[in-house]
Every structure is written in structure tokens, then in C-alpha cells.
Amino acid sequence: MKSPQPIRVALVGTPNAGKTALFNVLTRSNQRVANYSGVTVDQAEAELALPSGKSATLVDLPGAYSLRPYTDDESVLVEALRQGQFEAMILVVDSTQPERAVRFLIEVLNQFQIPAVVAFNMSDLAKKQGYEFDLAALEQSLKVPVLATAAARKVGLAPLLEKLDALLAQGGAIEPARKKHYLLKPSSGGTSRQALANEILAFYKLSDEFLKKFIVRKGRIDPLTQKLDRWVLHPIWGSLILVGVLALTFQLMFNLAAVPMDAIDAGFSWLAEQVQSLAGLPEWLRSLLVEGIIAGVGGTLVFLPQILILFALILLLEDFGFMARAVFLLDHFMGKVGLQGRSFLPLLSSYACAVPGIMSVKSIENTRDRIVTTLMIPLTTCSARIPVYTLLIGAFVPNTEVGLGMRLQGLVMLGLYAAGMLAALALGGVLRLFALKGARTPLLIELPSYKWPSASSVAKGLVYRAKLFLKRVGTIILGMTVLIWVMVTFPHPGDQSWAADLGRLFEPLIRPLGFDWRIGMALIPTFAAREVMVAALATAYSVGENADVSNTLGLESLLQQEWSVATGISLMVFFIFAPMCISTLAAAKRELRGTRWFGVMVVVLFAMAYLGSWATYQVLR
Amino acid sequence: MILNNDAVPGSSAVTWMGLGELQPGSSAVIRGFDWEQADPAFLQRLTEIGFLENVVVQVLHAAPWSQDPISVQVKDAVYAIRRKEANWVRVESQGVEAHRAEA
Fold first, then answer.
1. pLDDT at A318 (0 to 100)
2. Tell me, what's the ipTM?
3. What is the DSSP track for chain B?
4. Which of A496, A573, A480 is CA-nearest to residue A533?
5. pTM, to two decimals
6. Which residues are paired to B59 by β-bridges?
7. Counting Cβ atoms within 10 Å, is residue A283 exposed (0-12), middle (13-18) or buried (19+)?
8. Is the CB of B62 less than 8 angstroms away from the CB of A235?
9. Count of beta carbons in the 10 Å neighbourhood of residue B8
10. Are residues B76 and A221, on separate chains, in Cβ contact within 8 Å?
11. Does the distance separating the beta carbons of B76 and A100 come in below 8 Å?
12. Residue ranges of the alpha helices (H) in A336-405?
């Protein structure tokens, strides 16, 4: 039986201490799938089974260097500890940086009277680097249990859970001696920064004595990291490696994904045929299944391989330690538009999906940079645009050879990506120049030691992504598909449907862009997800015409007959700019808090879409 | 370890330089902080992660094209920081060996 109030255990530590790795090995894969448009995405929570048979909720909190927040992530941590009602916490220490980590430990233990157990994580790496610790001495001084762990190798996990169990059995009682460790007072609001810095200096001096007791032997920085950095951070090689990694990422995303995508496509075509040939199926149900559900869901599901490949690469590069180096290498380049290197990661993630991109904006410490980055994100070419681009390019761009082994279709795809990126950079630059002025935010980012990514950690991250996507397909996209089908089928299929009425209502507005009422009608449900456009067009043009659009080729030839080239290109341009994705808008609204910048974002992006599309159509027609 | 935060102005200040003036490969000892010029919140964060007086720092790399930002090793960690802000940390290139031995 579950108690109404589950036991909550917090996972607290400095950044890169391996908290998430520990979280992943301690809990099963039932990490709660956060809501896409949702509310609580800052903290990952999962069930933790304890040796005693009890079960608790483990909460993975963001990392922090100190309890005086400098970034939003750190504020989230402090707020969570203050209000989270945790029965216990696991304090995770990066053993390869014992001094900094233990100081943070002391701060947390002093400020929050929550029963705690300390995991001296990455103990295997520290040992390799020559560190030697007297953990018994540390335990003696801190009055909390201290254990050596190596989450990536699954070392020391059972004893850790046993200690945690014992703590919880005590029912929240704290060792009385622990309260004596007031080395650094919690910051009192009125003191000046310099006075505070002096307090920190004094704290460091005191804690130096403390550290000497348990650091038996000091180690060195990982020699492999130093060797690798000679290449990765090299003025010439570093730039080449970065460009190579990015090129390879996109190459893999498109080429590796082609096989599973074709398989999914073929699978849905086959399914459509089977349903078509079923005897005794009422005509309306056949239409709903084939032209509605199979066309819509199949057309979306096809992107799962691409999304997973991009996220796998991002997770691998992040775990390995490359992303921080990318920030270092790109900081100067980002400075050209007044931004900083940290904006790079949210922007890169957005090439898979803007929603996790906007969520990761929180790691940028400066409010102004967060706003600018958030406004830029909807312009990056997220994978939901790929089906729309693929369809339109296939239908309206001839696949002629243009020299150097390149074909026009591929070149146009590349051009659409470049256009999105340039538009994002231009918008960022303009905002920084005229609206969100001021000097650049100081850069401070740790370049962590390189580590082999843990396969299980990456796998868990991917399962999480896949779940989110499938949930979306099974809910929003399925629902929208059925809704569109109803709209285009009743009261009479095609020209006399409700959708046609609605599309005609919008037609005067979109006529200058070269769009007819069918396109207008198909654009409405794309707010659920851009890729629905393909399904919506498929449904809009197939219902009542009995055309076979269960695969992309059928739809392409249909569009070629129905639209002019100018219309096709104009629609592509529209998709570069228009922020048509309710999940993105919800995430952006949440991130931008005040509605002012959110309003600016929506207006500016739609204006760019409308004007860009209008200009394209007027020139080409 | 002495915390000479209110170090004698004049004489020794001349020999101090900004951390951002160091070239990759060179080490120095932190002597003080330029609180007047600095963004205090940022400087406070630097002290929290170990940029403290009498601590040895080493510039490891400079980014391509502009030689900015630089990567700086302090204690067991390496951080990327721009030269402008690094200059708020005042360093002396003398006495590195002595401080290393002490640490």
C-alpha cells in the first residue's frame, strides 16, 4: 500500500558530480515523464526502492557551486531545499575536486537541517588521479555517514542505500553534534559583496584546516584530459574538430535515420493497404482509419529515429565533456551578436525539438541573455519541420545535379537550415542592439574532465525522449488527426466541409501569400505540432478524392497538380519563421514569465513569417 | 597562509597584473581583486569556486581567433573565463614556486 505522502529524498551536489548518473542507477527506468507543455520540469523524480522494502521518491535537483545563487538553476536548488519537505538528502561529491565539493557540503549541512548521507562519487577516477582520502575522519568531523561510490561503475550503491534506510528509520533526527559546524554563516542580506567575499575568504581559511584532516594525498588533474584539450582547445585544430563534430552530427541525423524511417513509412503503407482490403468495413470507418489516423500518426512517427539520433549525440557529447568546450570555442562567435557561449547548447538542442531547448535556457545565468536565447529558439529548424520541408522540396524542387556531387534538393534543405540559423542570429543581434542593450554577460563555465559516457545513462535519456514523443503522437497528434478528419469530412467531404468554411474565412488574409483555403485549413492544426501539416494536407486532399496518400510520394504528386511552385516555396518560407507549435509557445511563455516578451516573440515571429512568405510569393509568381 | 586583503597600495601594486594579461602556459599567484571595476556578484562567484589570494593559477588555453576567452586552472578545476573579467583578479607572476611548495 502506498502512503499518501511518499518519503522524499533529495539528490544534492555540485555540477558534474555525477548526480544524474547516480539518479539513473539508483532508480528504475520509471522516471516520471514530464508534461511537454507542463509545469514541473525542473526536477526529475523517480521511485527509489530501499533495502528495507520501503519506497521513496528520489528528486534530482540542479547542481550548484554555492548556496548564494548566481544562476536560476541554483535558485531552483535553494528554493527546493527550503520548501521541498525532504526526509533526507544524498549529498553527491565529485571526488576529483574534493576541496570545492566539501566546502559546498559544509554549507549545505549548516544551512539545511535535513538528515544526510554523503556519496564520495567518482571515487575510482579520483584514485586513478592519485587522490587518497580518510573518509572515516571526514565522517567523524561532519557527523554524517560518508561513503565512497562510483555511480558509472555501480560501485558502493548498496551500502549507500542501507545508510539512507537507517537514516529514514530514525525518523528525521539529526546528530546533535552536526549543528556545531557553523563555519560559514548563512549570508545575511545587508552585507556588501566585498564583506561577503571576506567572509568567504575566512571560511576558506577555516575549512583548509578541515580539509587537511581528510585529504591524505592530493592528486593531479586527469592527464588524459590535458592531452585531449591540447587538440580540442587548439586555435586551429579545435575549430576544425568543432566543425567536424557538428557536421557529423547532422550527417548522422539524416543518413543513419534514413533506414528506420523508410521502414516505418513502409510499415504504415502496408497497414493502410490491409485496412483498405478489409471486407465489410463501413466506408466512413475505412476513411477515418486510412485517411485520418494512419496518414496522420504514421506521418509523424516517421521522425522518431531522427529525434533519437540527435538526442543520443547531444547526450553523448554532453556526458563526454565536449559541450563545455564548444561553449569555450564559440563564445567569441556568439559575441558577434552580443550573446555568450552558453546560448549554444539550448540552440543546438532545439534542432531536435525547441521544447527541451527552451527548458535548458535556465542554465544561462543572465536574464537578458535568457530572453534573447528563448526568442531565437523557435527559429532553429526543429525536427518537426523536416517532414514539411521534405514533402515540399520533393514536390516543388527539381532534383537536378548542381555540381560537386550535390543535388538541388539537398542544397535547398541546407538553405532552409541556414535561413533559420541566420534569422535566429539576426533576431538576437537586433534585440541586443535595440531592445535588450548592455554589455555582454561575463562568461564562467567549468571545463570538466573528459569521461566515458555511460551507456545506461544515455539509454535512459533516450527512453525518456522516446516516451515524450510517443505520448505526444498518441494524444495531441492522434486527437488532432481525428478532429481534422471530422472537419474535412462533415457535413459533406471536401469542398462543403466545415474545414472548408473555416479555411475560406481565413482565405482573404492568406491569399497574398499564395495560400488557398485548404492550406489555411491545414495550418490551423499545425499549432498542435508542425508535422501535423503533412497529415493535414494528406487528409484535406485525399478525403473525397480517393487518392492514395498513405505514403509521401502520393501526396507529392497530388500537391504538384494542385499548387504553383510559388505557393510551395512560399509555404516553405512560412515554416522557417512561424512559431506554430503550442508546446513551444507554452514552454516559452513559462520561461519568459512576464507576458510582454512572450507577446513580442509571437508578434515578431508571425510578422517575419507573413512578410517573408508574402515577398517570396510576390516575386516568384 | 596570510589573507592580505588590505595589501599595501603603491609599491607592490605596480608589479601586479590582471589574470587576463597572462598568455597560455604561464602561471601566477593571486594577490587581490579589483572590486572597483568588477561586477561584484561575478567576482564573488570566482572567490567561491577557489579564486583566492595566494592561490596559484595557470592559464592553459586561449580560444581561437580572438585569443579570448581563456581557460584557467585553479586548484583541481579548469574554468573558461573572458580576459576582461579575468583582469578583475590581480596576480603576480613572482613566487609561484614558493606557493606551489606550500600547497
1. 83
2. 0.86
3. ----TTPPSSTGGGG-EEGGGPPTT-EEEEEEE-TTTS-HHHHHHHHHTT--TT-EEEEEEE-TTT--SEEEEETTEEEEE-HHHHTTEEEESTTHHHHHHH-
4. A480
5. 0.81
6. B72
7. exposed
8. yes
9. 8
10. yes
11. yes
12. 344-349, 354-359, 367-376, 385-396
CA distance B66 to chain A (A): 7
Q: What confidence tens digit (pLDDT) does each residue in A75-107 have? A: 888 888 888 788 899 999 989 888 888 888 888
Is cis: bond before A282, omega within 30 of 0? Answer: no
In DSSP terms, A91 is beta-bridged to A12, A118
Name the residue of chain B whose CA is nearest to A230's CA.
B61
Over 80: is that where the pLDDT of A299 sits? no
Q: Which residue is associated with the grid cell 528563448?
A: A374
Sequence letter at residue A459: A
Measured between CB atoms, does B73 come within 8 Å of chain A?
Answer: yes
Considering only CB atoms, A198 lies closest to which of B5, B75, B79, namely B5
pLDDT tens, residue by residue, A216-236:
888 888 888 999 999 999 989
Q: Which residues contact A529 (CB under 8 A, 6 or more apart)?
A: A300, A384, A472, A476, A477, A480, A581, A582, A583
pLDDT tens sequence across A112-170: 888 999 999 988 888 888 888 999 888 888 888 999 999 888 889 999 999 999 888 88
- Looking at residue A510, what is its pLDDT? 92
Question: CB neighbours of B58 closer than 8 A, spacing ≥ 6?
Answer: B25, B26, B27, B28, B72, B73
